[in-house]
């Protein structure tokens, strides 16, 4: 063999193996990643543009977002999503069940509308977000940051009732979403909530960004309460901006406007170990990218969504 042929025999260092396939995770995105927080707002992109761009960015699954942003007629919405090659993974509802039985009727009126549309779209999940203790725009304190023992009982029994009613009437499972500036936020309150509720009725939506925002460790949560996690939201937090937000006592809405939620891999938590831990649960999970960006310029979301999808493919998802 000549020197030249020896040089051409092959690379001295073989290419690294591809990441393991995360084949139990179904990747999607949500209106939130396009800066959509409200059913109607002049600073949000039209719903047609969201649907066009989320499909073009490489996602197959979407959430409904705030009820009324996407068409609420099932036939029309079904046509709009299917002709773009999309499917719906979940709807989202907002609750204040810690206030007791007096709020049940109003809660169910809201939930039933969203659950009906979610079921009609063939989805099986309802993400449940607890109410805020301070206004996410004005920072006005709406109620005490800490719940009383009685309010914790109302919250637990109310969520259990909601989970059973939604399952029995609509065939959906609820996934309660720990969220910044709510009473279900960081490690202590999430553990308290999970320990107080029936696993058969109440699941958890782990939002990696909100949990990090509130000081939680997503991998630890998956390892500790993995059987309760029925749904994932993927996002990251910019640790430098978060440090300023915490130091200044900034409410969640203005914190988002500062850019506290960032695209991967620029923030925390690192998503690779989170995805690996979720894959290790051995169950099929939706993993929905949800980067809070309200308000934002209309041309900003699509490039971020495309880069994020590429990043997740590089992780094996």
UniProtKB/TrEMBL annotation:
<feature type="domain" description="Xylose isomerase-like TIM barrel">
    <location>
        <begin position="51"/>
        <end position="253"/>
    </location>
</feature>
<dbReference type="InterPro" id="IPR050312">
    <property type="entry name" value="IolE/XylAMocC-like"/>
</dbReference>
<feature type="region of interest" description="Disordered">
    <location>
        <begin position="1"/>
        <end position="25"/>
    </location>
</feature>
<protein>
    <submittedName>
        <fullName>TIM barrel protein</fullName>
    </submittedName>
</protein>
<dbReference type="Pfam" id="PF01261">
    <property type="entry name" value="AP_endonuc_2"/>
</dbReference>
<dbReference type="InterPro" id="IPR036237">
    <property type="entry name" value="Xyl_isomerase-like_sf"/>
</dbReference>
<dbReference type="InterPro" id="IPR013022">
    <property type="entry name" value="Xyl_isomerase-like_TIM-brl"/>
</dbReference>
